[in-house]
Amino acid sequence: MKHEIYIVGMGPGREEDMTQEALTVLDSCDVIVGYTVYLNLLGERFLGKTFLSTPMRQEVERCRMCYEEAKKGKRVALICSGDAGIYGMASLMYEMSAEYPSCELTVVPGITAASSGAAVLGAPLNHDFCVISLSDLLTPWEQIKARLRAAVLGDFAIALYNPSSRKRADYLQRACDILLDAGAKGTRACGYVENIGRDGETAHTCTLQELREIQVNMFTTVFIGNSQSVIMGDKLVTKRGYQIGAGARARAKERG
Amino acid sequence: MKHEIYIVGMGPGREEDMTQEALTVLDSCDVIVGYTVYLNLLGERFLGKTFLSTPMRQEVERCRMCYEEAKKGKRVALICSGDAGIYGMASLMYEMSAEYPSCELTVVPGITAASSGAAVLGAPLNHDFCVISLSDLLTPWEQIKARLRAAVLGDFAIALYNPSSRKRADYLQRACDILLDAGAKGTRACGYVENIGRDGETAHTCTLQELREIQVNMFTTVFIGNSQSVIMGDKLVTKRGYQIGAGARARAKERG
């Protein structure tokens, strides 16, 4: 018999932002493993489950905990905020899977911050886009810089994850400078969303030049439009290219 | 009173892949507008709702239909497959919103094919990535080409939407050639998923050189790893950079 482990994306945090499938899977599990902050977001529905955690940065140990619990015969879910496969634990679980041939992994996707933040801000990612993390814990800064420059070169809309932390207070400013240096105009339409789907959710639009001066925190997702994006009222919109008048003109022509 | 319109991402198609919020919003609406294929995916739960549609390519008319129904006092949902704000109708609705000042838009995010397809394939987007559509209906091919080249330059993992259609049978091959020409190796780890979350869901891994020879259809999402991605069994995995041995070594050291 295979030991089943589910790697579950919980979306921004509220139960109603999870998919039905994610809820059903969590309901079916004996043990839910996750970073404490995310476990604490799970409500009454999950009373009676065994909750297991490891401190921040102990991701390898957290994954190993899942495998060890599964080997005991428990049905295990590993929860990740947002999507399990976008800066989540899915890849690390697969990397470790060779050590645990009796275990079978299933990834259950969730709403990542690019989607949930974009929904709050309007439609900033409604055309080709990049997702880039500014955290250099696991990625050399030179690689992040190369990706920011490439994003401008390809004229992608951009979602920036992990734009700041206590130790990286100026990273968003540095990222903006790289984008500007790569040719993005200071008037480029941008926005950011704090505490997506949680208490204190707020959204703001601004220009790239203004974004450079803003102090964001680790619960912020930043959106940078492509060269054609516009701010409409309090929304950031990246057009897909539909001709709004075309249909009306065609109808008028048909009518003669 | 504001007339409420919800632009709802339904995910890959099954009711269980929708978020609780999306289901609750659809439950609360009188009228559900969408492309017929997506309306047909909605089950018994929505019997009794008024379903309205326009043919393919009549997206402007479909959006206008939402506004007109809302102005009649109906509570309206516009459904999009995947996420409402990723190649969905959110941006077009905002673009038209100035004509309908009495209407208020809310975007309800859904699981986009990048997330749902990645979950089936393993963890191909577990580090910085780009999402690029190969459809040149609304985007000049030269722009698509520039984005593909930039994606290689930044060493992003890539999710390709709309990789093929009857009229664009060779577009995936052309895209692969652009990636190869931009410096991606023929051995680059890739994969593709057909009919995500629907009957006939299948996933395959292959190299970039092999991908070039594969005929995909319009219900396929293609994943191209970054230079470090690997194929593990039948899964495509893009590592995030955790040192799997590090924790074990630290523990061994603690134990002396």
TrEMBL record, chains A, B:
GO biological process: cobalamin biosynthetic process; methylation
Pathway(s) of this molecule: Cofactor biosynthesis; adenosylcobalamin biosynthesis
Protein EC: 2.1.1.131
Catalytic class of the enzyme: transferase
Highest taxon of the lineage: Bacteria
Molecular function GO terms recorded: precorrin-3B C17-methyltransferase activity
Gene3D superfamilies in the cross-refs: Cobalt-precorrin-4 Transmethylase, Domain 1, Methyltransferase, Cobalt-precorrin-4 Transmethylase, Domain 2
Keywords: Cobalamin biosynthesis, Methyltransferase, S-adenosyl-L-methionine, Transferase
Listed name of the protein: Precorrin-3B C(17)-methyltransferase
